[in-house]
Design brief:
This protein is an alpha+beta fold. About 40% of the residues lie in helices and about 20% in strands. It has an eight-stranded mixed beta sheet with strand order 1-8-7-4-5-6-2-3. Helix 2 packs parallel to helix 6.
Length: about 190
Amino acid sequence: MKNLYPRLVNSFAAAAICVLLLHTAPGATIRASLLPPKARTKTPDFTLKDASGHAVRLSDYRGKVVLLNFWATDCGGCRLEIPFFVDLDAAYESHGLAVLGVSMDIAYEGLKDAQQAWSRVKPFVRAQGVKYRTLMDDGSAAKAYSVEALPMTYLIDSNGRVAAKYAGVVNKESIEANVKSLLAER
């Protein structure tokens, strides 16, 4: 994992530049098209801990559409889109959507451990009204998903395959349309 951190730090510097560019171009958000089902690839599984210390596996959500978001508390783009995900979770959870937030605070902030990271993440999540599950990355999920910048969001179909990827701040209308389409596939 140690060799992952220098790559993440350099990537986060690039992400910060992207966020600055997004602020200079109002309304500039990322749209993504759904891949056709036959072109979708199986998602890497991972096990991470939530705020209560419970181990959570991505594969536990098989059968649901999953919005998987990699973020950090001090990532400007992440702060912009988290309210979208709170809204999507509230609107579509009962229809089969599971939103999972994966905090990258340990690597992003250069923190020594998960305890330090949770001391930042828990108050942030409460203040944002996040009701969906938040997990703490230990480096394994970021590696499995080749996360090199934040925010990074994946839409995963109910069969556990990547249906769309957003590298940057998601466009709310685009991601909601894709969520609706994936829920209709189930």
